Structures are given as structure tokens and as C-alpha cells.
Amino acid sequence: MILRVLHLRMRLTIVCIALLALAVSCNTLDIYEKTVFFPQHSWKNSEHPSFTFDIKDTSSLYNVYVVIRHEDAYRYRNIWLSVQVKTGDSAYTIRREFQLAANDRWLGSSMDDIIEHRMIFNRTPISLRKGRYVFTLEEIMREEPLQHVLNAGIRLEKAHP
Prior knowledge:
The protein is mainly beta. It has 1 helix and 14 strands; from the N terminus they run αββββββββββββββ. Residues 10-29 have low confidence and may be disordered.
């Protein structure tokens, strides 16, 4: 009985050490990622999801991504977005087209009939000032509402050195 308890304790200890080593070795660079879900899988012009995060590390460079998830039935090969960025007392808006497909294939990763795109917003890594940032997304396609869109969001991560 004592040997069985010791054997069980030793196995449990090995599992805990392995899990701790795995957690420490998974050095994720993600800082922030959030998406909003669109009921009925359609993005209405009146819906402007906002994403807020704080920057404390000003010594790093960052990449900002726009995240879009849609169904395979999405009818376009692109999406036009108006992205408003607010920080401190400044704000600016960028209207931009993001490519979702090339020829007859989606550019994002897919699972069954759901395709996820993480599209770079800034062309090169950028430094961010300390403070709060608010990104607001607005779809500016001609279809109202924009059908077969499941989620939209923002992802911020530290750039690789």
C-alpha cells in the first residue's frame, strides 16, 4: 500500500513538473486579442466594435492585426474597413482594403467552413507611447448588412526582435 501511494505521488510530481516546464517554455508574444461576435452572422453598418488596451512597455515594437472570421459563403475576396485609432488627445482614421482571397482560395486559416484572417494593420513594427489605445472598426462595404461575417477584432503582439 505504501509503495502504491509513493508511486502515485511520484507520477503526480512528474506530471506537475512536466506541466510547469511546458508553461514556462511556451513564451507567448501575444499582448492583446479580442473579437466581437455578430449575431445572425452579419455585420451591420451601425455596429462599430471598439477594443481598448493599455501600453506600458514603450521599449518594444508592436504589430497590430485586424482579425476577421467569416463563413465560406462570404461573397467577396476583400473587405473594406474604416479603422479609428484614439490615444490620449489624438485620433485618426484609416480607410483600408484587406485582401481575403487570392484566385479561388481563402488566404486565412480555415476549419470546416469558417475562415479566420489575421491581417497586418501596420506595414512595419511600430513603437507605441505609454497609455490607453482604442481601436474602433467599421465595415464600409456596399452590402448592408455584410452577410456571413462571424467576428471582427484586433490583435496586438510584440514584434519579433
